[in-house]
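User: Some background: our group keeps a shared notebook of sequences we're curious about, and every so often someone picks one and asks for a predicted structure to add to the entry. Today it's my turn. The entry only has the sequence so far, pasted here. Could you supply the structure so I can complete it?
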Amino acid sequence: MATPKPKPRDPIPELVETLLVELGEDPDRQGLKATPGRVSRALRELTSGYGMKPEDVIADAVFDQDYEEMVLVKDIPFYSLCEHHMLPFFGHVHVGYLPKGKVVGLSKIPRLVEVFSHRLQIQEQLTREIAEALNAGLAPHGVGVVIEARHLCMEMRGVETPGGRMITSCMLGTFRRDPRTRAEFLDLVRRS
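Assistant: Of course. Here's the predicted structure to add to the notebook entry:
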């Protein structure tokens, strides 16, 4: 019987311990003793999207369907880390598409959001990546994505302006070309 390979050592706890010392803390004090391991686990979870492929998330849930009216999933909550400061930004994603003979299982759209939000991100890129992945997986008439988010890098540091929201959108296909389709999508997003 072959001996199993030992699990590689996680370097993040040691790096966090060094960071704590550099910040003037004592990593051996009671409240910080387990912090390096907790930070490592949290960062691994918050960046788990690097280990997921968007095409794998939706591949087994694309179904032939003769339906060509707008499909909209609203208010999908998300959390991500800003790639500039590694501070959280969070909010809601609204995703719509116009099917062209294929639809995707409802739960796969929030999973697609998770794939990209669980990476170091900027909101503009996150918006585009979700739209392009859904477009590639379904080849619909069009896709629209709107994200509304609060950024702690703006609220906690720098300009220190709490409560501001950033709104980004990405429109592909019919959502970009046809003002009526875009207007319908944005009207549905605004409705409570």
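Suggested note for the entry: The chain has two domains: 12-46, 54-190. Strands lie at 62-64, 71-82, 88-98, 102-104, 120-121, 142-151, 166-173.
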